[in-house]
Amino acid sequence: MGSAKEILGIDVGGSGIKGAIVDVTTGELLTERFRVTTPQPATPKAMTKAFKELLSKFDYEGEIIGVGFPAIVSHGVALSAANIHEDWIGTSIAKLWGKASNKKVYALNDADAAGLSSVFFGRAKTHEGVVIFLTIGTGIGSAMFVDGVLVPNTELGHFYMPNGMKSEHFASGKVRKDHDLSWDTWGKRFNQVLAQVERLFSPDLILLGGGASKKFENYKHLLKTNAEVLPAAMMNQAGTVGAAVYAYQQSNKG
Ligand code: BGC
Fold this sequence. Notes:
By secondary structure, this protein is α/β, with parallel strands linked by helices. It folds into two domains: 6-113 and 237-251, ATPase, nucleotide binding domain (Nucleotidyltransferase, domain 5, 2-Layer Sandwich), CATH 3.30.420; 126-232, 2-Layer Sandwich (Nucleotidyltransferase, domain 5), CATH 3.30.420.40. The chain is 30% helix and 25% strand. The strands form three sheets. Strands 1, 2, 3, 4, 5 and 8 form a six-stranded mixed beta sheet that branches. Strand 1 (6-12) and strand 2 form a beta hairpin. Helix 3 (110-120) crosses helix 7. Beta-D-glucopyranose is lined by residues 70-72, 80, 82-83, 109-111, 135, 137-139, 141, 155, 157, 168.
């Protein structure tokens, strides 16, 4: 197992579940990127149905699938549930979706997946030191790399700001939309989140992914960090590509 280099990557988000077959040597998508809506409530049962619906759009003959999942993921098991149903806590994504697809499923945190694709194919590729990748969407996801090595499950959307709010409750993409915040107001909030990230980790580079990274021009002048902040090169595809790369790596491990 594991020699095939064309792997189905799936990016599970709070609003959509997206997938494509990825060439893990180049990071290119070999198929269209299909999407199904994340069911609400996002229980294991309802999401497994959506996962199967997404699979049915592919004629995938490979043996392994990579899944980026919006939770702490340890050894294939979800250990948190901020924007999905709490029944996920303690559920093995690898086992449940392995059974549902009859394939070997490798799961990791969604932001860790997106960050990995930047390390392999994007802006973080040649970067030494501490790189922090933040995804701005339903929540705030994070991936931290030290000299290119992932420190998994950093969950920087869940630290508390000096105002007592969790960072993702203060400045996620969903918060901007739900409260109809201007880019100016939201950008100033996000700058405060970055200030805390810098205080804690002094990163050398901060990369942004997720929906708001596409509008970087609207708020980049408000970000006053020491570290350079850049939108991630692959933006929307990053999670899908990173999930496929992760599955490839894991299946080739000893
Ligand atoms: C979750 C993270 C996830 C992020 C982005 C957060 O609410 O706790 O695990 O990476 O949302 O989806």
